[in-house]
Amino acid sequence: MGFLYSQLIESWRLPYPNTNYAGQTIVITGSNTGLGKEAARHYARLGASKLILAARNVDKGEAAKQDILTTAAKGVSIEVWQVDMASYVSVKAFAARIESELDRIDIFHANAGLVRAEFAMAEDNETGITVNYVSTFLLVALVLPKLRSTAEQFKTRPSLVITSSGAHRHTTFPQMEEVNILAAVNDRNYAGGRYWRDRYPISKLLGIFAVRSIAKEHPADTYPVTINLVSPGLCHSGLSREAKGMQKIMFTGMKMLLARSTENGSRTLVDAGVQGPESHGQYLEDCKIAEPSEVVTQNPDVQDRLWVELKAKLEGIQPGVTANF
Ligand SMILES: NC(=O)c1ccc[n+]([C@@H]2O[C@H](COP(=O)([O-])OP(=O)(O)OC[C@H]3O[C@@H](n4cnc5c(N)ncnc54)[C@H](OP(=O)(O)O)[C@@H]3O)[C@@H](O)[C@H]2O)c1
């Protein structure tokens, strides 16, 4: 009922972005297409000074840039930077470029994400877990110093928005019963593979736990950056591109009946960037703070254990990086 109400009624109420972004620098990963691209189009229309479109394929990013420029305000500078979230080396190189070439970041959208149709590893995790979770939080940790220095230098409160998903509600997360939760999440044969369909929901669920852990350690009143999560709702985009057979028929049918346009869904991303300190550590749906699933709210011990496991993983990738949280 909540999902249907959101898709059929709330979709008509999502505020059309109208903030003036003059002087601001905004970075969006996964912005060569889909929700990230439409969010970038809003920022360009609303006069952001500098927009960094982060894409794994620079040609696709350049094509998006040319398209966005047709509706951009005068004087907006748009650059396409390469990042492949399936590679830790690429994430680190992208973050190093941010550190050396940008003098400020006002809003950072960690938006790149994917749904895999088949099991495949990237780095030391299943691909979706690497892209949607581990690399996303590696990037968050690596860019936070720039957002913090922006806050201090320009006396502002930057935002870091992670694109989450209502799909996180679709799993009971049986792996949380295991001693090493992330090892179970990455186990191809966990429960005989029965939980394959849970992988994308779990990749988004893990992100919600992580943001809550950051906010638990660093509440809004002692932290200069707002970090929140946004669920855009079910939207038209390329996200289900790998679906085949029954999965494809199901996705196509659901989208035809219920999906938001990509532009409509992108409003939720832009809105999350201006929500401010009350939204720190929170999950947003339909441009409002919402309760995530009970798997999240009823299991603070799992949240704490996952935070220890994630930080250990990130330290293995770049020693010292978790001090940035
Ligand atoms: N559409 C929905 O209904 C929906 C609902 C809830 C949440 N979301 C979330 O919204 C975000 C945006 O997705 P979308 O719906 O706009 O889908 P999309 O059209 O498929 O866009 C996804 C973006 O992420 C990029 N990406 C994927 N893997 C990457 C990698 N390894 N490195 C760098 N970039 C990568 C894609 O680049 P390429 O073009 O090169 O593949 C693309 O730019 C995702 O986090 C998704 O989980 C979407």
Question: Can you describe this structure in just a few lines?
Answer:
This protein has helices at residues 2-8, 34-45, 58-69, 88-101, 127-154, 181-185, 199-217, 245-258, 262-272, 294-297, 300-317, and strands at 25-29, 50-55, 77-82, 107-110, 121-122, 125-126, 159-163, 226-231, 283-285, 288-290. It is an alpha/beta fold.
Give the secondary structure arrangement, pairings included.
Layout: H1 2-8, E1 25-29, H2 34-45, E2 50-55, H3 58-69, E3 77-82, H4 88-101, E4 107-110, E5 121-122, E6 125-126, H5 127-154, E7 159-163, H6 181-185, H7 199-217, E8 226-231, H8 245-258, H9 262-272, E9 283-285, E10 288-290, H10 294-297, H11 300-317
Parallel strand pairs: 1-2, 1-4, 2-3, 4-7, 7-8, 8-9
Antiparallel strand pairs: 5-6, 9-10
The structure holds NADP nicotinamide-adenine-dinucleotide phosphate.
Q: What is the spatial order of strands in the main beta sheet?
A: 3-2-1-4-7-8-9-10
Report the sheet-strand fraction: 5-15%
Instruction: Characterize the main sheet.
Output: 8 strands, mixed
By CATH, the superfamily comes out as NAD(P)-binding Rossmann-like Domain
**Radius of gyration from the alpha-carbon trace, in angstroms:** 18 Å
User: Tell me, what is the CATH class?
Assistant: Alpha Beta
Helix content estimate = 40-55%
CATH architecture: 3-Layer(aba) Sandwich
Assign the structural class, choosing from mainly alpha, mainly beta, alpha/beta, alpha+beta, or little secondary structure: alpha/beta
CATH topology: Rossmann fold
Q: Would you list the SSEs in sequence order as H and E?
A: HEHEHEHEEEHEHHEHHEEHH
Keywords: Oxidoreductase
Protein name: NAD(P)-binding protein
InterPro entries: NAD(P)-bd_dom_sf, SDR_fam
GO molecular function: oxidoreductase activity
